[in-house]
Design goal:
By secondary structure, the protein is mainly beta. Helix content is 9%, strand content 59%. The chain has 9 helices and 37 strands.
Length: 788
């Protein structure tokens, strides 16, 4: 494959290189060439889709906050974001129109960023990307064809910033609450010999975290070489990322072990206050761990002590990845342009986690019995990780004239991955001596390959001056194979005793998808009206297979997306509304059922839908003040849903399952209202921004029960900056920017996500135990930027 790519690149580059002339570059043409790189995956202004665009200045300002990009995206309609540490750095998640991260397609310069297996973007590995980006486009719904996994909630196109044509150096530094700090440098050599540019960047964020044990360090580095001509560009970009963070995915308990929801409001407390009050369920590693052990219906505290006494070193998440992107863009005439990209990403990482009182047979396949014939339990430390290699190539061709704008695209992605898991500590020393050879015991090992080929043609035709017809057809061919031993074990019997055997993986699936889209729009005198219909398919994720055990093979999801809307842009105000109806077939949801390996099953539900309206508005009454807002109002339903809940009858010897049927129940994690309001005052170099957002309540499962619900929340941030442009350079210094971010200024105690971790019937009474992912109360960050 490398030889084929090399030959194609050599042939494509040879012609323009032969005609290089040492003439002054046309900056307009250079800008056009830069835009060609991402044009294939972005929607044009006349497109009939719901789109939000974020420009370089907003990205640059956001980068100083130290937060990850989902918190910037959450300022656009229908998006919510949260982080495990409560601060906004490190392990961060987002949802768009209620759809989780695995349903949001993300690219950088057209190259897919989603992990092909999990189909997620792990934003902890994307630290400070705002400082590297030049623009972002967010498409809600299916949108136009893109590269990589299907977009079922939306797609995000990141474009790296074009290198500066003049020499520049910019230094940034920020510091704030929870000992959070961010520092970075960006530079460009400017044009060398009128054609060559070398630019680079390094950014790093550190924090102690709001939640105990979530201190972390993450960063990114970038280096680029660009050769510019008046009609072409050759660039190589290397983007690397690293992270080492604490874990807090267990969240904070919102009620006691008996399901008493009177303690639920304590889930909104400061996490450290909860520890002091003895009401929290802490992350799985601390000297004093609080567990829901029945002792008068209360939480009990148990002290664990590792032999080396080091707790926090045993509960970290660690990952490193490196992206290599080689691009050749050629615009031989005003009508034609080409973009050819070869890319390779290497990633490796692991997490370590202390697990108290683990049943060694059930969790790790160590079927060791005590003198009474029971399987031994012990505290352990497990280390789970993977190594990834992702190769790919992209080619796009574009023809554009006054009436037509036609783009064709080809994409190939070859993914290779090894998953593994070790025990590195067992508190039971006899067992440890027997099984931990060289300090570790491998309890699972599996390989996975995924080949993804796609091609598309999209066309926009303008007629009668103001009318545009859009058509888009994509075809995708996917092969996914996995073999080896899973990290789950199947319960059986041996010699009359409970026994756990390895769950072997043997998956080989092929998918062929046809994804058509079409729409029409009318634009004139600031008015735009549009409508579109799009159809998409999406293959199952890795966990849909591995957690399934011996249950039926999961089916692909399918989505029909109808969008229509109207926008008006006036001199001092604008407004718009977008309506949508997303009809899902075979959408994956959790029913509460367990597979034969004990995992919560995510199964296909035949029919479900999301529908809603997204509104945007802004008013600029004076040159120095503006008001903006957006709202996403939605209804998200499963038409027919059968729930499984474990029931324990105290008078019977055994357990069984209760099946509950629901008609038109609300989908989990799908708030019906998300609102954002902004006020912006800017005068001379001073800018002051007020942002308030509101998210309505969300159900934590699909039963639509208020007993398993995340409360609504609202919080407000203020940002203030002062930019001083120096009339005369001081040691080369041209600009100073001083600023401060004041987050959650009213000190709201709220959680942006959560889950149900115990749910059962006892003597006909249903009890549920919830966990919240709380966000920090009032916190602030000061920052300074120096531009040379």
């Amino acid at each position: 494959m490398k030889k084929i790519i090399s030959a194609a690149m050599t042939a494509a580059i040879a012609c323009p290189l032969a005609t290089i002339a040492q003439t002054k570059l046309d900056t307009t043409k250079v800008q056009n060439i830069n835009e060609v790189v991402v044009k294939a995956v972005r929607a044009p202004k006349t497109s009939p889709f719901a789109v939000a665009n974020i420009k370089k200045q907003e990205l640059k300002q956001f980068a100083t906050t130290g937060r990850e990009l989902p918190f910037l995206f959450a300022r656009t309609p229908g998006v919510i974001a949260w982080s495990e540490n409560g601060v906004g750095t490190g392990t961060t998640y987002m949802r768009m129109r209620g759809a989780a991260g695995s349903r949001i397609n993300v690219t950088v310069d057209g190259v897919p960023l989603n992990s092909p297996e999990d189909q997620c973007v792990f934003w902890a590995n994307m630290n400070s990307y705002a400082a590297l980006a030049g623009s972002v486009q967010i498409q809600r719904g299916i949108g136009t064809s893109t590269n990589g996994d299907g977009a079922f909630g939306g797609s995000i196109s990141l474009a790296t910033a074009a290198p500066s044509l003049i020499p520049t150096v910019e230094l940034t530094g920020s510091y704030g609450t929870f000992n959070t700090w961010n520092t970075g440098v960006n530079f460009s050599t400017g044009l060398i010999k009128n054609h060559l540019i070398f630019d680079g960047a390094y950014h790093e964020t550190n924090t102690d975290g709001f939640i105990h044990g979530t201190s972390g360090r993450s960063g990114s580095y970038y280096g680029g070489l660009t050769w510019l001509g008046n009609k072409f560009k050759i660039s190589y970009k290397n983007i690397g990322n690293f992270e080492k963070t604490g874990q807090a995915w267990n969240g904070v308990a919102a009620c006691n072990y008996d399901g008493d929801t009177s303690l639920r409001n304590y889930g909104m407390m400061n996490y450290r206050d909860m520890y002091n009050n003895g009401l929290g369920k802490f992350n799985s590693l601390y000297e004093e761990l609080i567990f829901p052990e029945t002792e008068g219906g209360k939480f009990t505290t148990k002290r664990y002590q590792l032999r080396d006494g080091s707790y926090w070193d045993k509960t970290t998440d660690n990952f490193y990845q490196n992206h290599n992107i080689l691009n050749f863009t050629w615009q031989p005439s005003e009508h034609w342009s080409h973009s050819l990209t070869a890319h390779y990403t290497y990633g490796r990482g692991y997490y370590k986690e202390f697990k108290p009182e683990s049943e060694l047979g059930k969790k790790y396949g160590l079927n060791i019995y005590d003198n009474e014939g029971n399987l031994i339990k012990s505290e352990v430390v497990r280390k789970k990780g993977l190594t990834q290699n992702n190769y790919g190539a992209l080619y796009n061709i574009n023809y554009k004239d006054e009436a037509w704008d036609v783009i064709g695209g080809l994409s190939m992605q070859l993914f290779r991955c090894n998953h593994w898991g070790y025990l590195t500590y067992i508190a039971n020393e006899d067992v440890e001596k027997q099984y931990l050879k060289n300090g570790k015991y491998k309890y699972y090992d599996s390989d996975a390959d995924k080949n993804d080929y796609s091609w598309f043609v999209k066309a926009n035709y303008t007629f009668a001056s103001n009318w545009n017809v859009f058509a888009d057809l994509q075809m995708r061919c996917v092969n996914y194979t996995t073999d080896g031993v899973n990290d789950k074990f199947i319960k059986t019997k041996k010699d009359g005793k409970k026994y756990y055997e390895q769950h072997r993986l043997d998956i080989d699936k092929n998918y062929f998808f046809v994804n058509p889209k079409a729409g029409i729009s009318y634009t004139a005198n600031g008015h735009k009206a549009y409508a579109s219909l799009a159809y998409a398919n999406r293959e199952p994720e890795r966990n849909n297979f591995t957690d399934n055990g011996n249950y039926p093979t999961p089916k692909p999801e399918r989505l029909l997306d109808l969008e229509w809307g109207y926008q008006y842009q006036g001199k001092h105000w604008y407004a718009g509304v977008n309506f949508y109806y997303m009809d899902y077939f075979n959408q994956f949801v959790q029913t509460g059922a367990k597979s034969d390996i004990g995992e919560a099953l995510t199964t296909n539900v035949k029919s479900s839908y999301r529908m809603g309206a997204e509104l945007t508005a802004g008013w600029n009454p004076l040159p120095w003040i503006s008001f903006e807002g957006n709202a996403a109002l939605s209804r998200n339903k499963i038409k027919n849903f059968d729930e499984c809940v474990v029931s324990w009858n105290a008078e019977a010897d055994g357990s069984y399952t209760v099946h509950n049927h629901y008609d038109n129940s609300t989908l989990a994690y799908s708030p019906s209202a998300i609102l954002n309001g902004f006020a912006d005052i800017h005068f001379a170099g001073l800018r002051f921004t007020w942002h308030t957002n509101f998210v309505s309540s969300q159900y934590l499962d699909n039963s639509q029960s208020t007993d398993r619900q995340l409360p609504c929340f609202s919080q407000t941030d203020i940002n203030a900056t002062y930019t001083l442009n120096l009339c005369k350079d001081i040691l080369g210094l041209k600009q100073i920017v001083l600023g401060a971010d004041f987050n959650n200024i009213f000190n709201r105690h709220y959680a942006a996500s959560g889950y149900v971790y115990y749910d059962w019937y006892n003597d006909g009474k249903r009890s549920s135990t919830l966990a919240y992912i709380p966000m920090a109360g009032f916190n602030c960050m000061g920052h300074v930027s120096l531009k040379f």
